[in-house]
Design goal:
Elements (H helix, E strand, L loop, with lengths): L1 E2 L16 E2 L12 E2 L6 E6 L4 E9 L2 E4 L13 E4 L9 E10 L13 E5 L9 E2 L12 E6 L14 E10 L3 E6 L12 E6 L2 E11 L7 E5 L4 H11 L22 E3 L7 E3 L14 E3 L2 E3 L23 E4 L6 E4 L13 E5 L5 E5 L20 H19 L2 H4 L5
Parallel strand pairs: 10-15
Antiparallel strand pairs: 1-15, 2-8, 3-12, 4-5, 4-7, 5-6, 6-9, 7-8, 8-9, 11-12, 11-14, 12-13, 13-16, 14-15, 15-16, 17-18, 19-20, 21-22, 23-24
């Protein structure tokens, strides 16, 4: 058995930004399958550079279900997007992921409860697929399902990226998943998170999500059951992220989630959005918010943005961490940074803490009457060049020193 997850380099976005058309190379998918232009709600989860990563299924206007082992989680979702279209080699809408949630019971070792839910910032361009309302039992064995995904056509191929569909036969039903055998198709690498569809009432419904299978992609594949996860995971998430569920001042994932007013992006943390009601004065807004340009907004730092007081990582924006501020000994939200290429927001500097990592922290106040370090006399020739060289040497020394502390994920 193996986990079907494409190796992907997660770096800075270099493709067209989410919400635009994607253009790429030509790929194929699903063993012994055929090109699929009809299941538009089965989507590709792509990396920041536009490459194929996993598959998924649209189950609501703003919600995609995929496999938890794909690694799109609350700390990494900004590095991925969702592509709608038959092939990454053709133009198609690419939408922003604004939230990700793993099944809380997911076990990365056994792949039990291998489900994740993604929320899209923009409304999907196609209709979602309904979740099957039945409960799977022994009578499901022997039935045929359509398997759909963007994976490779065989274990030795490198042709992922196009949506294909094929037929498989259910061979076993367990408490959390079911197994299929080729008839003649089955999922393969890159199909993780893809769909098992069955006709119900004249329409396709989702009964399972691709989880894992044999290395050669010729013997069997396992699907996480949707029916057993609805009450504990899927339905509660859909209810909590439904339109109109966010009040003014609360975080929002898309515009119509706000009960009133727009979903506004903060100026100090691009990943943070809050519902901002209309106002004429600050007293029209909830506590801690002010009226800014006719809309209620938080003064900086925004809740969860760098500089915001915190007690744990979950208090901070996605990708942010709660660390000790060396200058104040208080706990604040921050993000990691590279001192050689700092990307901190205005008013913040890339500073070292007592650990080997660097974080964006508020710039130290310049004492009155001081011109700061710019007033210091220069020596030893080209000071900027020397400073850059020292920075590189410090970085190399720090990198060599990152051993058990880094592997354990320790930080201040």
């Amino acid at each position: 058995m193996k986990r079907w997850l494409l190796a992907a380099v997660l770096g800075a976005a270099s493709c067209s930004p989410p919400g635009t058309e994607h253009v790429g190379a030509t790929w194929s998918a699903v063993t012994n399958g055929t090109p699929d232009s009809s299941d538009g709600a089965v989507v590709a989860v792509i990396t920041a550079d536009g490459g194929p990563h996993c598959s998924g299924t649209l189950i609501g206007p703003h919600t995609v279900i995929t496999a938890a082992h794909c690694g799109v989680d609350p700390t990494t979702f900004s590095q991925f997007a969702v592509f709608f279209g038959a092939s990454l080699g053709q133009a198609g809408p690419t939408l922003t992921i604004s939230d990700a949630r793993l099944d809380p019971a997911f076990d990365a070792t056994t792949l039990d409860h291998d489900l994740a839910l993604l929320t899209l910032r923009e409304v999907a361009p196609v209709a979602p697929i309904a979740l099957d309302t039945g409960t799977l039992d022994a009578s499901f064995v022997g039935q045929s399902v359509s398997v759909v995904g963007y994976g490779v056509t065989s274990a030795t191929a490198a042709d992922e990226g196009s949506r294909h569909v094929g037929q498989a036969r259910v061979s076993a039903v367990a408490s959390l998943d079911f197994t299929v055998v080729p008839a003649p198709s089955q999922p393969c690498e890159g199909d993780s998170g893809g769909a098992a569809l069955q006709m119900s009432g004249g329409a396709s419904t989702l009964v399972g999500v691709v989880s894992q299978g044999d290395d050669a992609c010729v013997d069997h594949a396992d699907f996480a059951r949707v029916d057993v996860e609805r009450a504990t995971f899927i339905d509660p998430y859909l209810a909590s992220t439904a339109p109109g569920t966010a009040q003014v001042g609360q975080k929002c994932l898309y515009d119509t989630q706000c009960k009133s007013g727009p979903c506004l992006q903060t100026t100090d943390a691009p990943g943070l959005w809050f519902c901002g009601g209309s106002c004429t004065k600050s007293s029209d807004c909830p506590t801690r918010m002010t009226c800014d340009g006719g809309a209620c907004r938080y003064p900086l730092p925004s809740p969860g943005a760098p500089g915001w007081s915190c007690s744990q990582d979950s208090d901070c924006e996605a990708g942010g961490v709660c660390i000790r501020n060396p200058s104040s000994n208080g706990q604040v939200c921050s993000v990691r940074c590279n001192p050689a290429q700092p990307t901190c927001a205005s008013g913040f500097e890339c500073q070292s803490t007592s650990s080997v990592d660097f974080y964006c922290l508020e710039s130290p106040a310049t004492p009155a009457g001081s011109a700061g370090c710019a007033a210091a006399p220069r020596a030893l020739g080209d000071a900027p060049a020397l400073s850059a060289a020292v920075t590189v040497l410090l970085l190399l020394a720090r990198r060599r020193s990152r051993s058990a502390t880094v592997r354990a994920g320790c930080r201040d």
